[in-house]
UniProtKB/TrEMBL annotation:
The lineage of its organism: Eukaryota, Metazoa, Chordata, Craniata, Vertebrata. InterPro entries: FANCF (IPR035428), FANCF_C_sf (IPR038505). DNA repair protein that may operate in a postreplication repair or a cell cycle checkpoint function. May be implicated in interstrand DNA cross-link repair and in the maintenance of normal chromosome stability. It comes from the Eukaryota. It holds the Pfam family FANCF. The gene is FANCF. It is found in: Nucleus. Keywords: DNA damage, DNA repair, Nucleus. PANTHER family: FANCONI ANEMIA GROUP F PROTEIN, FANCONI ANEMIA GROUP F PROTEIN FANCF. Gene3D superfamilies: 1.25.40.490. It comes from Piliocolobus tephrosceles (Ugandan red Colobus). GO terms for biological process: interstrand cross-link repair. This is Fanconi anemia group F protein.
Length: 373
C-alpha cells in the first residue's frame, strides 16, 4: 500500500509539472513514461473502485494533498482531487501537455501520434482512445487557431487546415454546450479576445459550411445525450447575431463568395448582412469629377467591393437572390426611384448588376433578358 501511495504522490507532482515550463526538457521517452504512469493509476481505479478500504485510503491521501501547501505550486493540480479522477488521469495529463506551449516539438509530435494513431492501428483500449482523442482535439483547438492563421491566397472552403480548425471548433462548441447553455457564447467571446481575429473569422465561416458532426458511438446508443445536428453551427450563428461589431468585421473581412455561401446556408444571417451592405452603400457619395461613388472616410467600403458583394448575392439560388433584388428595389424606390445614373447608388447598382448579367448571357449565347439579374 505504501508503494501505491508513493506512486500517487509522484504522479500528483507530475501533473503539476505538466503545466510548467519544466516540460521543455521532456523528450518522447519522458512523455511515454508519463502516460504509462497515468495508465497504471487508471488501472488502479478500475481494480479497486469497489474495494472500500483501499479506495478510502487513496481518497484520504488525495484529499490531504489537495489541502497541503508546498511542492510544485500550492497543493496538487486541480483535477486530481478524488478517487474518481484517477479514472481519467491519463486524459488530464495529455490535455495539459497539449495546452502547454513549452512542450518541445518532438515530445508534442509523439503525444499527438499516441492520441491519433490513424486508421488500421490496433487499439487495446478503444474507450480510452476515444476519450483521449476527443479531449485532445478540444485542447488542441485553441493551439491550432492561435498559431496557424497566416496562410495566404487559399480557397478557404477546401483548405485542409481550415477545415480541420473548423471541425475542432464545432466539436469544442458541442463539448462546452453540454456543460451549460451559455457555455458556447462565453467560449466564443473568449476566443475572440485571445486569438488573431482575422483568422478566427475565417474559421467561423468554414465551420458554418461544414456538415453536421456525426454522433459518437456512445451517443448513438444513449439518446439522452444525443446532440441536435448542426448544434455547433447554430451556436456560431447566435453568437454572431448577438455581437454586431463582430458580425460587421465578419462581413467585411471575408470574401464575397464565401459570405454568399454562408448566408445561403444560414438564412438568419442574410437580413443582417443585407442591412450592413445597405449601411455601407449609404455612406458613399457620387464624385462628379471622377464619375464614381466614393466614401468620405478611409474605412468606407469602396464601390467595387459593394458591387462585388451584391453581384455574388445575386448569383445565389432563391430565395436569397430574390431577397437581395427586392431589397435593392426598395432602396431605389426610397431614394427617388431614379432611372439615370449618378443620382442614387441603388439605381447604379441595379444598372451595373443588370449590365453584368446581360454581358454574361451574351457570352453564354442566351436570351439577353435585361430584366433578369
Amino acid at each position: 500500500m505504501e508503494s501505491l501511495l508513493q506512486h500517487l504522490d509522484r504522479f500528483s507532482e507530475l501533473l503539476a509539472v505538466s503545466r510548467t515550463t519544466h516540460v521543455r526538457t521532456w523528450d518522447p521517452v519522458t512523455v511515454r513514461r508519463a502516460l504509462q504512469w497515468a495508465r497504471y493509476l487508471r488501472h488502479i481505479h478500475r481494480r479497486f473502485g469497489r474495494h472500500g478500504p483501499i479506495r478510502t485510503t487513496l481518497e484520504r491521501r488525495l484529499h490531504n494533498q489537495w489541502r497541503q501547501e508546498g511542492g510544485f505550486g500550492r497543493g496538487p493540480v486541480p483535477g486530481l482531487a478524488n478517487f474518481q479522477a484517477l479514472g481519467h488521469c491519463d486524459v488530464l495529463l495529455s490535455l495539459r501537455l497539449l495546452e502547454n506551449q513549452a512542450l518541445g516539438d518532438a515530445a508534442r509530435h509523439y503525444l499527438v501520434q499516441q492520441l491519433f494513431p490513424g486508421p488500421g492501428v490496433p487499439d487495446a483500449d478503444e474507450t480510452l482512445q476515444e476519450s483521449l482523442a476527443r479531449l485532445a482535439r478540444c485542447g488542441s483547438a485553441v493551439h491550432m487557431l492561435r498559431f496557424n492563421g497566416y496562410r495566404k491566397n487559399l480557397n478557404l472552403q477546401e483548405d485542409s487546415l481550415m477545415k480541420t480548425q473548423a471541425e475542432l471548433l464545432l466539436e469544442r462548441l458541442q463539448e462546452v454546450g453540454k456543460a451549460e447553455a451559455e457555455g458556447p457564447a462565453r467560449f466564443l467571446s473568449s476566443l475572440w479576445e485571445r486569438l488573431p481575429q482575422n483568422n478566427f473569422l475565417k474559421v467561423i465561416a468554414v465551420a458554418l459550411l461544414q456538415p453536421p458532426l456525426s454522433p459518437r458511438p456512445q451517443e448513438e446508443s444513449e439518446p439522452s445525450i444525443h446532440k441536435t445536428p448542426g448544434e455547433g453551427s447554430q451556436a456560431l450563428v447566435h453568437w454572431l447575431l448577438g455581437n454586431s461589431e463582430v458580425f460587421a468585421a465578419f462581413c467585411r473581412a471575408l470574401p464575397a463568395g464565401l459570405l454568399t455561401s454562408v448566408t445561403s446556408r444560414h438564412p438568419a444571417l442574410s437580413p443582417v448582412y443585407l442591412g450592413l451592405l445597405t449601411d455601407w452603400g449609404q455612406r458613399l457619395h457620387y464624385d462628379l469629377q471622377e464619375g464614381i461613388w466614393v466614401g468620405t472616410e478611409s474605412q468606407d467600403v469602396p464601390w467595387e467591393e459593394l458591387h462585388n458583394r451584391f453581384q455574388s448575392l445575386c448569383q445565389a439560388p432563391p430565395p436569397l437572390k430574390d431577397k437581395v433584388l427586392t431589397a435593392l428595389e426598395a432602396c431605389k424606390a426610397q431614394d427617388g426611384d431614379f432611372e439615370v445614373p449618378g443620382l442614387s447608388i441603388w439605381t447604379d447598382l441595379l444598372l451595373a448588376l443588370r449590365s453584368g448579367a446581360f454581358r454574361k448571357r451574351q457570352v453564354l449565347g442566351l436570351s439577353p433578358g435585361l430584366s433578369s439579374v
